[in-house]
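Both lines are quoted verbatim for reference:

——
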Amino acid sequence: MDREKPPEHRQLLDQLYAAFNRRDLPTLLSALAPDVSWPNGWEGGIVHGRQQVRDYWTRQWAEIDPVVRPVAFDVEADGRLNVTVHQVVRDRAGAVIADGEVRHVYRFVDGLVAEMEIRS
């Protein structure tokens, strides 16, 4: 299997991480499939669809200040894109509550993010 992911997927994710760090919801939501499956890494569980993702991020950003930067990209055997990210999470007072690397695994359908998984 060709383990190269179309460059537009990597470029899209670079743009989405920058949009996330800016709290740019319109840009983020426009890149998600209408029925996206997204992990709720903060409260637990999975949210489905753009509105639930919007609501989740809105709640999250009201309580914590995460900044996430991609540091490596790899393609899994099933074609999903595995992104190693460095994340720093601060509380609203600015104190660091988490600082480290995790993996985000994305599945695309028709050029949109259809699913994301978080791995430690």
